[in-house]
Design goal:
mainly alpha, globular, 14 helices
Length: 262
């Protein structure tokens, strides 16, 4: 199977921004989250990074305040300039989408902030940089540098990067094709529930491409990917189910739901 190596699309980049804000923001039971907007702003203006992150999160998501990407960028930038890697990741991603930074993507500035975050071991930043070097977005195309970023993040347990490593070795994109290494990375990502890895391994079980042909296992993996909204999995799940009896499908779904099987 040929799985196209894709750059993070607009919606996925935006999702990364949202997820990054969620990581950067304090938890609901933290002292910071119980403060008023005025108190948070006062703290942020005196250099409290958690307050800056909280304000960036709130304005980006419209959580308790009117949604305002420019305000989100303002407070996030303050934290990023103080060296907070979560903020550097989010600000870099905002430059990829243009949200809050002039409504125009600036990939060169995105690379600058994402590189700073990556230096502080931000695996999502490494993943984004891997994509950018792979596609030549904001930087000259460099498959060696791309692979280095994906590999470091994958070694650190970042599931999306592990999936990319699996795809890279399957395609021989800048490396010799290696089915064993490809599957090793895909298994690691699938074990963490990455939907694309689940889909690829499920597909290969269905077709018998490098793995034993096993409709039940294929169905289970595709089912887990579909539960996360992975579009291709829905279509293939229907194809696989046509080759199974209702009893086999029922058993497969029951085994997926058992503790330890996900």
């Amino acid at each position: 199977m040929h799985v196209a190596v894709r750059i993070v699309g607009f919606l996925l980049v935006l999702a990364l921004s949202t997820a990054s804000f969620a990581v950067a923001a304090p938890t609901d039971d933290s002292a910071t989250s119980r403060k008023t907007i005025a108190e948070l702003k006062k703290d942020a203006e005196t250099g409290v990074i958690t307050a800056m992150l909280a304000l960036g999160n709130m304005y980006f998501l419209g959580d308790g305040v009117p949604q305002d990407y420019e305000e989100a960028a303002k407070w996030t930038r303050m934290a990023a300039e103080k060296g907070a890697p979560d903020a550097q990741l989010v600000l870099g991603t905002m430059y990829l989408t243009g949200h809050g930074v002039g409504n125009k993507p600036n990939p060169q500035e995105a690379v600058r902030w994402l590189t700073l975050a990556a230096r502080e071991n931000s695996y999502p930043a490494m993943y984004s940089l891997g994509n950018m070097y792979q596609q030549g977005i904001g930087v000259p195309k460099d498959l060696k540098q791309s692979l280095a970023y994906f590999k470091k993040a994958a070694d650190g347990g970042h599931a999306r990067s592990q999936t990319m490593m699996g795809i890279i070795y399957a395609q021989g994109a800048g490396v010799p094709k290696d089915n064993e290494k490809s599957l090793d990375w895909l298994f690691k990502a699938a074990d963490q529930g990455d939907p694309e890895a689940l889909y690829i391994v499920g597909f290969r079980h269905y077709t018998g491409d490098g793995l034993p042909k096993d409709n039940t296992r294929a169905y289970q993996l595709l089912y887990l990917a579909a539960l996360q909204g992975y579009g291709d999995a829905f279509q293939l799940l229907q194809v696989v189910s046509n080759d199974m009896t209702p009893e086999q499908i029922k058993k497969a779904e029951a085994e997926v739901a058992m503790p330890g099987n996900q």
